[in-house]
Amino acid sequence: MAGAAAAAPMDIDGAAAPPAFKGKAPLSAAAAVKSSPWVEKYRPQSLADVAAHRDIVDTIDRLTDENRLPHLLLYGPPGTGKTSTILAVARKIYGAQYGNMILELNASDERGIGVVRQQIQDFASAHSLSFGAKPAVKLVLLDEADAMTKDAQFALRRVIEKYTRSTRFALICNHVNKIIPALQSRCTRFRFAPLDGSHVTERLRHIIKSEGLDVDEGGLTALVRLSNGDMRKSLNILQSTHMASQQITEEAVYLCTGNPMPKDIEQIAFWLLNEPFSTSFKHIADMKMRKGLALIDIIREVTMFVFKIKMPSNVRVKLINDLADIEYVLFILLKLNFDQSYPRLIIFCC
Ligand SMILES: Nc1ncnc2c1ncn2[C@@H]1O[C@H](COP(=O)(O)OP(=O)(O)O)[C@@H](O)[C@H]1O
Ligand SMILES: [Mg+2]
Q1: Does 230 share its domain with 339?
Q2: Strands 102-105, 138-142: parallel, antiparallel or unpaired by DSSP?
Q3: Is the CB of 81 under 6 A from ligand 1?
Q4: Predicted local confidence at residue 5, as pLDDT
Q5: Which of ligand 1's atoms lies nearest the C-alpha of 76?
Q6: How far is the CA of 294 from the centre of ligand 2 (A)?
Q7: Ligand 1 atom closest to the CA of 172, numbered from 1
Q8: 5, 98, 231, 254: which has the fewest Cβ within 10 Å?
Q9: How far is the CA of 155 from the centre of ligand 2 (A)?
Q10: Nearest atom of ligand 1 to the alpha carbon of 53
């Protein structure tokens, strides 16, 4: 492949492309941005663009301004802006030097003890060129640090201490309990909570406006609801729904994600509470087939629905308890890949 490319004369204007070449022409920079996933296209470029977490962002911003950035440990669920915040900080500190001053390692890179001893230590120990008064401090960004082995984390503890004068470390993870206490105590910790609905809505409105999308209020509410505070998820759903239909309505969003619609859940709860078991079972199985719904999604949504309807608290407790049992058994079966046993499972659980 590489040999063929080297042998072929360089084709600049494309008009004289070899006839044998049938692939698509490479995308221009503008076209590449246009077709890029919206999660990347709308990744906050500066700290001011980061939605929510104002207190955290302002603190980090102030520390950066005062040149007192500590080692950082950002943790919390996915899609809440951890990586974006650090990248914005790095862009702010280094500007055009960004590429030289930051070592970024994420889950796709090997991050065993060897990498800590070699790559990270080499980067941290190298002298940075600085033409200003003060030598600039470098940044090592360890994204998804909870995937690092324990040995690597212990080795990192020593490296952090040794190179504190020249290098700052930013660790990002979902599960802080997977980071050894010795590392945690060397960093300033910030928890990124799931974004609340109003922040997701505001950011989505901005993107909807920039893309000129046709989204009604129901569609927007569905996007916010299904995202559960995960901004990445909301953008992915928005983009895939936009690809599937011109108008983004509540129905289009639910259809695109395969989640049961609120009105379907209402109907299912009505059957379960009012119809005899066999009729209810038949209706649900029928709806599941017709709409291609997953039983686990139905159970989860019905559980949430039980919280919303008025009923004596002892009945509510019993229902939620039983639904939790069904969800648990389903989860185990899904893990074991026992899809076919769903109907028998419901009978068993009921
Ligand atoms: N707080 C936020 N403000 C604005 N956009 C966000 C925020 N959090 C996440 N996003 C969007 O979701 C995408 C993924 O965010 P990212 O920072 O990688 O999340 P995390 O590292 O917490 O999993 C970003 O590209 C951005 O489009
Ligand atoms: Mg991330």
Answers
A1: no
A2: parallel
A3: yes
A4: 38
A5: 22
A6: 28
A7: 21
A8: 5
A9: 23
A10: 1
- Lowest-pLDDT choice from 48-57, 122-131, 289-298, 313-322: 122-131
Please report which confidence band the pLDDT of residue 80 belongs to, taking 50, 70 and 90 as the band edges: very high
148: left (phi over 0), alpha (psi -120 to 50) or beta: beta
Ligand 1 proximity of 233 Cβ (cutoff 6 Å): no
pLDDT grade for 330, boundaries at 50, 70 and 90: confident
Reported as a single tens digit per residue, the pLDDT across 236-252 is 999 999 999 999 999 99
Q: How does pLDDT run across 120-137, given as a tens digit for each residue?
A: 888 888 876 555 545 578
| 56-60, 81-85, 109-113: the lowest-pLDDT one | 109-113
For the domain that residue 117 is a member of, what is the CATH number? Answer: 3.40.50.300
Pocket lining: 261 vs ligand 1, CB cutoff 6 Å:
no
Using CA atoms, how far residue 91 sits from 141, 161, 273, 313, in Å, is 13, 25, 56, 53
- Domain of 226 in residue numbering reads as 197-257
Q: For a ligand 1 pocket test, name from 232, 234, 239 the mutation site with the most ligand atoms within 8 angstroms of its C-beta.
A: 232
Whole-model pTM above 0.85?
no
Return all residues near 309 (Cβ < 8 A) that are at least 6 apart. Answer: 269
Q: Are 224 and 204 in contact (CB under 8 A)?
A: yes
Say yes or no: 56 and 186 in one domain: yes
Q: Which atom of ligand 1 is nearest to the CA of 52?
A: 1
* pLDDT for the residue 200: 96
| Structural contact between residues 41 and 33, judged by C-beta atoms closer than 8 angstroms | yes
335 versus 146: which is more confidently predicted? 146
Q: Is the CB of 80 under 6 A from ligand 1?
A: yes
Among the bound ligands, the one closest to the CA of 192 = 1
User: Does residue 222 lie in a domain region?
Assistant: yes
Q: What is the CATH number of the domain that holds 248?
A: 1.10.8.60
Task: Locate 120 and state its tokens.
Answer: 């990270």
Is residue 123 situated within a structural domain? yes
Show which of 191, 207, 222 is a domain's final residue. Answer: 191
